[in-house]
Write a structure and sequence with these properties.
- It is a single chain.
- This protein is an alpha+beta fold and about 130 residues long.
- It has 3 helices and 6 strands.
- It has a 6-stranded mixed β-sheet.
- The chain starts with a helix and ends with a strand.
Length: about 130
Amino acid sequence: MNTERISAMKEKILTVSKKFWDAMERADELGMREIADANCNFVHIGITCKLDREISFYTSGEFKPTEIKFNSQSVDIYGDTAVVITDCNYGLLLNGKPTTHHFAVTEVYSKSGEEWRLVTFSFTALVY
């Protein structure tokens, strides 16, 4: 695959990632469902869950983002699988209490036809 095509594919994946982050920040259930596979795994500091439960955390207000600062994103492509590493500072109200963490979020996307679907979204706290 040529460099130009890989670069365009990476940009498309980053666009999908941004759409998911935006939907999550707005507690937009339809937007999250548009991108994430119904069986998508979410891994947090204290819980793992599937898409329905993740959506409920946001739509109920249990997770309410207050500020998300993106430090960097990188994309690696392995055939029909793409891995995005998002380095961010993520502030949210967690059950009404403010919290902020520096995370590396691993986003795994699987290509289905021409669409990239989120299959794993995993938060790893960075301590450096």
